[in-house]
Design goal:
By secondary structure, the chain is mainly α. The chain is built from 11 helices and no strands. It is 75% helix and 0% strand. The chain is globular and about 55 Å long. The model has no long low-confidence stretch (mean pLDDT 86).
């Protein structure tokens, strides 16, 4: 398979699986181990992170701008945006700690563990459907402790096979959000995590001797991940208004 076609496929997989509750890291491990594909390197990973960051920024740009401008504001009319911003920041802290402490181990776990993790994702998504009947309030009504719990769920999803979006949405549903509110909060949580992960990999590129794929390979992967990432976010937001997580639970169980 040519580098351009492999870049396209990896970009599509990253864009879709980053936001759909199916685990992007688990899919990339499957491609590497089962199909014998090798990654293009850290520099290419940075491009994919930037692409998915662009996708979530384009879809939620109003929310991101409102939160960024309200985070330090004392205007009572901005209280909802300010609280949501701090809920995102607080949830990011435990995720970052788990990532720093366990990232090297998670990246090298045997494939049998990845398979078990896919089964865990299927079970979590099945439970999430039951929890979705308990919807009580909007994300801004979460407590600081509840935000930390969602952040812990997001941190555990560093394990390949456990879906980040699935884990955070299930946690949100268990804490009283409806499916659409849980998905929105999950996607907003992805912004700082993707940004920090991309920045870390970027520093690895700057500080090391990482090889850089050709400009065309980078461009194809970037565009594929950005476009499919945006489609995945928009599609899932619409899908969850009327449907359950069952198709994703069946799919991850089959994997």
């Amino acid at each position: 398979m040519t580098d351009l076609l492999r870049s396209l496929v990896l970009g599509v997989v990253q864009g879709l699986a980053e936001f759909l509750p199916v685990s992007s890291s688990g899919h990339l491990r499957l491609f590497q181990e089962v199909l014998g594909w090798q990654e293009f390197g850290v520099a290419f990973d940075v491009m994919l992170h930037l692409a998915t960051l662009l996708a979530v920024t384009l879809y939620f740009w109003r929310d991101i701008v409102n939160m960024a401008s309200a985070v330090l504001s004392r205007n009572p009319e901005r209280s909802a945006d300010r609280r949501l911003a701090w809920l995102v920041i607080i949830a990011t802290v435990p995720t970052g700690i788990i990532g720093i402490l366990g990232n090297s181990w998670f990246e090298t776990v045997p494939m049998i563990y990845v398979g078990v993790a896919f089964l865990i994702t299927a079970a979590v998504l099945t439970a999430a459907d039951r929890l979705s009947n308990l919807s009580l309030h909007a994300a801004t009504n979460l407590s600081w402790t509840q935000a930390i719990l969602v952040g812990v769920a997001q941190g555990i999803a560093i394990m390949p096979g456990i879906s980040r979006s699935g884990a955070t949405m299930a946690a949100g549903l268990g804490l009283g959000l409806d499916r659409e509110q849980a998905a929105r909060y999950s996607f907003l949580l992805s912004f700082p995590i993707i940004l920090l992960a991309g920045a870390k990999k970027g520093l690895d590129v700057i500080g090391g001797s990482a090889s850089m794929p050709s400009l065309m390979v980078n461009a194809v992967g970037f565009v594929a991940a950005a476009v499919t990432g945006y489609v995945a976010i928009a599609g899932l937001m619409r899908f969850l208004r009327k449907h359950t997580f069952l198709p994703f639970a069946v799919y991850t169980a089959a994997l």
